[in-house]
Design brief:
It contains 2 helices and 19 strands. It is mainly β. The radius of gyration is 17 Å and the shape is globular.
C-alpha cells in the first residue's frame, strides 16, 4: 500500500529562454533529478508558467503522445503537419501523437500556465505510424458530478480525447467535501492545482504531486485536482523502463 506526496520544492525543475518560462516537474527527464522516475505509461509531466510572452522554437518528437492542458491564459501551437499556428485557451487541451516524427513550436503568453504530459503508448509500435494532432475546446469537455466532486472528463470513460495509450483516465476534479478513490486496479496520479485537502489523513496542498497505488483513499477538503489513472502493469516495456534498465 502506498501514498506518496511530493511537494513542489522536491520536484524536478526546468526553464526555457533564460527563465522566461519556468517549470516544476513531478516527472522530469533523468538529467533533471527529482524523486519520481517514469512509471506506468507516464513518462513526463511538467507544470509550465510563462513570466513573459515567450516562444519555444521548433523541435522534434517521435513515438510519444504529448498532451498539453491549458490551465490559465493563452498558448499557441505550430507543427510541421499543420503548418499554421493554433490558439488554445484556458480549459483547452491538445495531443500530438508524434509517431514517426513531427516538429512543433509553442508560444506562451505572459502569465499563461499549462501542463505538458507525455505518455508512452508502446513507442516501438507508434514510431512506425504517421504523426497526428488534435485539439479539444473547453466547452466540449464533458462534465459530471459525483457527490462532492465536479469532474471534467478529458480522457477515458466519458472523455473526448483519443489516445493510443490504453487504460488511461484523465480528469480535473473540483472537490468541495469528501470523495473516495476505491479503484485499486489503477495507479492514481494527482496534481494539486489549488487548495488544501487530506488524503487518508495526510495533508496535500497547492502544487503537491500525489501517487496512490494499491490503496483506497479518502479525500477531504476543498481544491482543484488534476487526476490521471494509469495501468499498474503494461504488456510492453516502456521507454522509461528501458532507460532505467540500461542505467543499472
Amino acid at each position: 500500500m502506498s501514498i506518496q506526496i511530493i511537494n513542489k520544492e522536491s520536484q524536478a525543475y526546468g526553464a526555457f529562454n533564460g527563465g522566461e518560462i519556468v517549470e516544476n516537474k513531478p516527472i522530469g527527464f533523468p538529467r533533471e533529478g527529482g524523486p519520481i522516475k517514469p512509471y506506468s505509461s507516464l513518462f513526463y509531466w511538467a507544470n509550465a508558467i510563462a513570466k513573459v510572452d515567450s516562444t519555444i522554437g521548433l523541435h522534434p518528437h517521435e513515438g510519444f503522445e504529448i498532451m498539453s492542458f491549458v490551465l490559465k491564459g493563452t498558448i499557441r501551437h505550430y507543427d510541421t503537419q499543420l503548418k499554421d499556428w493554433k490558439e488554445l485557451n484556458e480549459g483547452d487541451a491538445q495531443i500530438i501523437r508524434a509517431g514517426n516524427g513531427i516538429s512543433h513550436a509553442e508560444h506562451m503568453a505572459q502569465d499563461a500556465r499549462m501542463f505538458q504530459i507525455w505518455l508512452d503508448p508502446n513507442i516501438n509500435k507508434t514510431i512506425q505510424q504517421p504523426a497526428s494532432y488534435d485539439d479539444y475546446k473547453a466547452k466540449a469537455v464533458p462534465t459530471s458530478t459525483q457527490g462532492d466532486v465536479e469532474i471534467f472528463h478529458y480522457a477515458g470513460d466519458k472523455g473526448i480525447m483519443h489516445l493510443d495509450s490504453t487504460q488511461i483516465s484523465i480528469q480535473k476534479w473540483i472537490l468541495n467535501g469528501t470523495h473516495l478513490i476505491e479503484d485499486q486496479s489503477a495507479i492514481h496520479s494527482i496534481y494539486m492545482l489549488t487548495g488544501n485537502i487530506t488524503i487518508n489523513g495526510q495533508n496535500a496542498s497547492t502544487d503537491d504531486f500525489v501517487i496512490i497505488e494499491d490503496e483506497s483513499a479518502k479525500l477531504n477538503g476543498q481544491g482543484e485536482l488534476f487526476v490521471i489513472g494509469s495501468a499498474k502493469e503494461l504488456e510492453y516495456e516502456t521507454y522509461g523502463e528501458m532507460m532505467q534498465r540500461r542505467m543499472k
